[in-house]
Amino acid sequence: MTGKTPEQNKVITMAPMDATHTEYAELVARASVANHGTIVVPEWLEDKKPDKALTTRRSGRAKNGLKRFPFVGFISVAVLLFLYIPMLIVVAYSFNGGRQALLWQGFSLRWYASVFHDPSIIAATRTSLIVAVAATALATILSLGYVLALDHMSRFGSKLASGLINASMMIPEIVLGVATMAFIRMIGMAPGYLPLILAHTTFCIPFVEMPIRARLQTLDRSCFEAAQDLGASQLTTVTKITLPLLTPGIVSGALMGFVVSMDDYMISNFLTTAGTTTLPIYIFSLIRKGVNPSVNVVATLLLLLAIVVTVISSLLTNRKDK
């Protein structure tokens, strides 16, 4: 550009020498408007680009702020060790050949064989799997419907519904257990599989809903608009476009709900009967009698389940990002 219009001269006089990225972008936009809508960067505005040193000043301050606390790295490592060393100890002692849970007497797989042949542990595991699978399926269906309905609500209604769902995660489990037991007795339902499944479904919904809603928020809405413009019905749009795109979030949420249900003790403690003892309830009953080496094996298997679920969720997340 060789000449300057009065609008351009006005922009020049307003351009500060230490303009930030945001100010620079505004100047470019205003100059483009002055140039009849053509998106160009005039030569007279090139000198207004913020200095690289200015753009990195904030990140430099953050780094200098961290340097003022030299023990941050040590504290981080200490916290990680505090979290994972007990788990590693449990895994190591699950291969202990002795009869005492915390006294190493040689490597052995005897307690793994004992767990896999213990009818009580097998029955408790079967009960936990039945409850977890049923609760996960119901929670996934309800969470998916909730997320799709939430997407069509007003802003106020959406925030209100989200607050009500998320509030259940902050309520102590013992309160949920007592409330569920009181409600079941009030309606005349006997403790058993059905109350367990319904209670676990209610407890798992917030954990299943979060990944699904997060996935929906990242989708490009132009896909849905294009489908409707081409004459697709609402049902076709949901089944052919929305659900396939939400699959990573649905699977991640279902896996999270499954692990939460398998690990729950407090709510199950109020609703189990002699024939519906879950695995966490059985483990706690073993601990009351004394720490049995079988507890280390069961804890290791549950930890392995959590690791597998975490890996699958991570793979789905990476696939989603790609």
UniProtKB/TrEMBL annotation:
Name of protein: Spermidine/putrescine transport system permease protein PotC
Transmembrane intervals: 71-95, 129-149, 161-187, 193-212, 241-260, 266-287, 294-316
Cell location: Cell inner membrane; Cell membrane
Membrane topology listed for this record: Multi-pass membrane protein
A GO CC annotation given for this chain: plasma membrane
Species annotation: Pseudoscardovia radai
UniProt keyword list: Cell inner membrane, Cell membrane, Membrane, Transmembrane, Transmembrane helix, Transport
Highest taxon, organism lineage: Bacteria
Keyword Lyase: no
Keyword check for Cell membrane: yes
Function: Required for the activity of the bacterial periplasmic transport system of putrescine and spermidine.
GO biological process: transmembrane transport
Database matches in PANTHER family: PUTRESCINE TRANSPORT SYSTEM PERMEASE PROTEIN POTI (PTHR43848), SPERMIDINE_PUTRESCINE TRANSPORT SYSTEM PERMEASE PROTEIN POTC (PTHR43848:SF5)
Pfam family, one: BPD_transp_1
Domain ABC transmembrane type-1, residue spans: 125-313
Entry's family note: Belongs to the binding-protein-dependent transport system permease family. CysTW subfamily.
